[in-house]
Specification:
With 469 residues, the protein is an alpha/beta fold. Helices cover 44% and strands 14% of the residues. The strands form 3 sheets. A 9-stranded mixed sheet has the order 2-3-15-14-9-8-5-6-7, with helices on both faces. It has a 4-stranded parallel sheet with strand order 11-12-10-13, sandwiched between helices.
């Protein structure tokens, strides 16, 4: 009984963290197994003509990777005569579903941009054309899902995409819009697309899952393969998202530069970084720099008065201060009624948070609210307050070497499994392995920094900030 009580307490604690471990624990306690099976269009019977020496050892479809590394949880599963959840290991397959030479593929970069997008695009095109000898050009849809709805695309081949390799942004353009799933599937059918690669974040991959469901309802055989993309590093079941390493590296450079600006001019700087739902970029960059006085993230509540009191003390001690905040951080009691009403007056649909203008207006409102609070506290003081937002300078840069390699591996593995007939999945590095994750699991929420975890403790130890609750 005590063991069961202890496990229940662990579940309650982990549920608050909104982590993958919490989901696994909830699954264990509820008795509802976590469905990690990836759907396949049918049995793959066509022998793969590409040799293992060229693409790596074929991975058998029964080869799986445990979804959790915590031995206590693994033992808890086996004590109940249950097998812990696992994912299908990614890799080249001995048998393919269709002739890869005759496939017509499409690629869409949805949502915002991130370092490494062009590497993913090129690697997908290269793998199809140079390795699997797909003789049809790839369709690169322009402007995100809007390009798919409007059938607006360019034809891609390795000669074109190789020129994009070391450029930032995306050669296909990106976009955030709420779009009709039916119309997108109509376009895939009309164009005869066999595989659609969706490179995007949680919202885009959720849309990809809805497309896969609609395709299945129609009885069509179109593969939907996802490659998770977000600098925020907040997609569930992704250990480390591409672009994150580059974003942290570049954000750290800005922090160091702005630190010298604030110190030299004896001012207070509010530096806003990406992170609408999770503060991974802000926290990692601040920790890497070691020159930050306070880090504010969406996962940890803070009150304005204790925050302002702490900064006032820091300014008294050293005559300047640097606060790094994720864009989604907001003080307790903060409301957005005025910002929302202003958007309504301008005719925006507030339910469409994917609309970049809605998201931008709310982000600006949160930052200006915090800025006004600091300006009021330091009014009459010789210590001015200034704001910096190196958002677009961080996300639009080329990927560093770590992300370049990572992007290529994700893309290659996405192709290997798409041509084998797997669908409605994303390719992910989970724990130490590359696996196939059903897209339906991505729609469960966002990965977040555990407020009581070791990592966040390390961050606050580095900054020396107290609790602002």
């Amino acid at each position: 009984m005590k063991r069961k009580k202890d496990m229940a307490e662990t579940v309650d604690k982990q549920r608050l963290l909104a982590t993958e471990k919490a989901i696994i624990l909830d699954s264990l306690e509820s008795g509802n197994p976590l469905d990690t099976e990836v759907r396949r269009l049918g049995e793959a019977t066509r022998a793969n003509t590409v040799s293992e020496s060229k693409i790596g050892r074929f991975r058998p479809i029964e080869k799986r990777v445990c979804a959790v590394a915590d031995m206590e949880i693994i033992k808890a599963y086996y004590s109940r005569n249950q097998e812990p959840p696992s994912f299908l290991e990614a890799g080249p397959r001995k048998h393919l579903y269709r002739d890869p030479a005759a496939l017509k593929i499409g690629i869409v970069t949805a949502g915002g941009i991130a370092p490494g997008l062009n590497t993913v695009i090129h690697s997908i095109v290269h793998m199809h054309h140079e390795i699997y000898r797909t003789h049809r050009p790839a369709y690169g849809f322009l402007g995100g899902f809007r390009g798919l709805v409007d059938c607006r695309y360019i034809e891609l081949n390795p000669l074109i995409t190789r020129e994009w390799l070391h450029k930032g942004g995306t050669g296909l353009a990106a976009g955030r819009e709420r779009l009709d799933i039916t119309k997108m599937v109509n376009s895939l059918v009309e164009l005869g697309i066999d595989i659609l690669y969706v490179i995007g974040g949680e919202g885009s991959l959720t849309a990809a899952h809805l497309m896969a469901e609609e395709i299945e309802r129609r009885g069509r055989e179109i593969v939907i393969a996802g490659v998770p993309k977000t600098m925020d590093n907040d997609i569930l079941w992704v250990w480390h998202s591409f672009g994150f390493d580059t974003a942290v590296e570049e954000a750290g450079k800005f922090i160091d530069t702005i630190h010298e600006e604030a110190k030299s001019t004896e001012r207070i700087c509010l530096l806003s970084l990406f992170g609408r739902d999770a503060g991974f970029v802000a926290a990692h960059a601040a920790l890497a720099s070691g020159q930050v006085d306070v880090v504010l993230v969406p996962e940890v509540e803070f009150r304005l008065e204790p925050l302002l009191d702490h900064i006032q003390k820091r300014v008294q001690d050293k005559h300047y201060a640097l606060i790094v905040m994720a864009e989604g951080a907001r003080p307790v009691g903060y409301t957005e009624e005025r910002a929302l009403q202003d958007l309504v007056d301008k005719g925006y649909d507030l339910n469409d948070r994917s609309n970049p203008r809605v998201a931008e207006a709310l982000r600006s409102w949160r930052l200006s609210t915090l800025q006004r609070a600091f300006e009021e506290r330091f009014a009459g003081s010789r210590h001015g307050v200034f704001v910096q937002e190196p958002r677009y300078l961080v996300r639009a840069i080329p990927a560093n070497s770590v992300d370049q390699i990572y992007c290529q591996r994700l893309a290659d593995l996405a192709v290997h499994n798409a041509v084998a007939g797997f669908t409605d999945f994303m390719i992910s590095q989970w724990l130490t392995e590359y696996v196939l994750v059903p897209l339906k699991l991505v729609a469960g929420g966002h990965k977040k920094i555990p407020p009581g975890g070791i990592f966040w403790t390390t961050v606050i130890t580095s900054t020396g900030q107290p609790s602002f609750e």
